[in-house]
# Entry
Amino acid sequence: MHLLINGFSGSAVSANIKYTGHPDLGLIVSDEPAVLAAVFTRNEIKAAPVLAGLDRLSRGEPYIRAVVVNSGNANACTGHDGLIHVHQICSLVAREMGITPEDVMVASTGVIGQPLPMRRIKNAIPALVSGLSENGLEALADAILTTDTVRKTAIRRIDVGGVKVTVAGMAKGAGMIGPNIGPPQATLLSFVLSDAKVDQVWWQGALERTVTETFNRITIDGDTSTNDTVLAMANGRAGNKEIDAVRYGEDFEYILKDLLQDLARQIVKDGEGVTKCVTLIVKGARTREEADRIARTIAESPLVKTAFFGEDPNWGRILAAAGRAGFPLDQGLISLFFDEIEIVRMGVGVGEEAEHKAKKVMTAGEFRVVLDLGLGSGEASILTSDLSTDYVRINADYRT
Amino acid sequence: MHLLINGFSGSAVSANIKYTGHPDLGLIVSDEPAVLAAVFTRNEIKAAPVLAGLDRLSRGEPYIRAVVVNSGNANACTGHDGLIHVHQICSLVAREMGITPEDVMVASTGVIGQPLPMRRIKNAIPALVSGLSENGLEALADAILTTDTVRKTAIRRIDVGGVKVTVAGMAKGAGMIGPNIGPPQATLLSFVLSDAKVDQVWWQGALERTVTETFNRITIDGDTSTNDTVLAMANGRAGNKEIDAVRYGEDFEYILKDLLQDLARQIVKDGEGVTKCVTLIVKGARTREEADRIARTIAESPLVKTAFFGEDPNWGRILAAAGRAGFPLDQGLISLFFDEIEIVRMGVGVGEEAEHKAKKVMTAGEFRVVLDLGLGSGEASILTSDLSTDYVRINADYRT
# Structure
């Protein structure tokens, strides 16, 4: 799978932002103005590039040409200087490319609370711009990684009124992954590029809706980041009839959701120290909201996550986590499945044989846990992970 | 410090409930009827002894003679059989002691979802009762431990109108420690014994209020248990004038809170894999409720807890956790201290020297973290722990 999208190019260089010699500065460029959609973290503590991005959205400028991304430094909790640095980067890249600073956006990921090494970034920008090529998007997808161990990309094609349109995505994220509910919100860095011609209002709405159903439904450690950003650019190169809410929008949104779900799953599977990727489904709740809250409580329970790591179908921990989510339950109505294996029926354990089978299910890297509360028709699903000794090791060491 | 309280005796034997040869069945007896106060978990999934205890409370029987406690099996998610087993234990102990089953309560801790080994428990009861002695309360304090590594006891004396009164406590709890807010609620097993003469209504209120301020303000993993129980017995042996809300109540409650806080701190220090015991204070919030919710979010953040473990004063993670608690913050007003060391001022890092000093603070087993939000006068404090590789190891292995 090659990341080639009509009219887009990419580039990455090493600016020695945190480590020496590792690519950590990337650039995405659209040959012509692309329609922008964006969602950002809802954390009250927002990184400078997020504040700048929100400010830009509030001014309603619909077109964008370039996105600069750095890893190794979040430019968060950096005060007024942090915002100045964002604007300096926009200006430097714009000057080098012969465009205006308003055509450029910035996204950052890495350590919180340290000033960006602006001289090193400035020195790297000429090579960053001169290195642009249509084959360069994969290099960018590598440069944005932090504790990730593998590149995360996905691509889809769709027919829009007889015209082939492409949409592709890149993402990074392995820790500080724990979204809250409701758009506009994201949980990581992700860039969506398409050669589709799109209506701007629809494009923003489609991104918000699909992020809510995908990136917002994963959790690794429940810690929402200060820097979460999803930027989507559509440059119209494919020459299709414009996509909006009534024309082709539904089909395109289906493909977009599938693309983001693919990236979301890649993120959980490559989460810090993750050995298990678990689809947790809570059904039979009174409402969808209750199912969602219960699913998130289970998905973030340290005892549940360590049991996943230990391949122990310790269903008592799952029921106990459900029971502390804040909603009335009827213990006697609850059943629980690991894939197809029922291990709890009417609130009590089915028996040793079922547990043995469930334990076997857990030896796989991916499995499903289905909790049926027996109370109603509310249902929600969350993609979660285990909590391993490696997660602790990575995060006890991360800054040093 | 000897656990001797006028008119109380204790005993412990091995009933081979989970492991062989380890004391796992204990008994507390008051020579005469003691005034009962009790608080239980608010988890929706309640163990059988908790359901039986709540049922007893609702019937308003104020006196109790004996408490049977077992470790190794929680008797939770055990259906109707679980309740029958609680009543059988009460009957067996009552018959052996020559009292009525209504004089006896049961508390359990251990694995969820397995039936109690009733034959082994029944066989152990004669030795349990015959082993009672006034020196036996420490043996009981040992028998109730699960993943705890040390016995947790505390004792206080107070003068009540010229009469010396004693109050003592025992506790267990190392994992599944993460209370919710509001009485009546507890977070572990704890037994409070006093020779004071008390008014029953005041005694129950005093226990609820002090548990809210102590056991409910600690967290190890945020996972509220199905079995949390605090039982308090006051047998009146000291011969003091009855304590109630207007006579001596305030003084006694002060001592009771101090006792429970002592036990609470012992629990966090001995938490599963814990190497750091951190007093986290959030102040300058708009309200106490907001301060409390923000403190709990920080105290349960895996990234904050792993940074504690790594002795990394990674303040960005603390601010990020505060920012996702669901309340508006003003980044530019925030300051943060490790003990006396200010490392964040007006939302930005103070500098490397301050971080070095903060890192030194963290090498101690206990320290304070103070987050000042600069918004108002709301303040709350939580006693929390780090998250270590050992926590994961213990909980990935616990059942097997």
Notes: Residues 249-269 of chain B form the longest helix (21 residues). The longest strand of chain B covers residues 25-40.
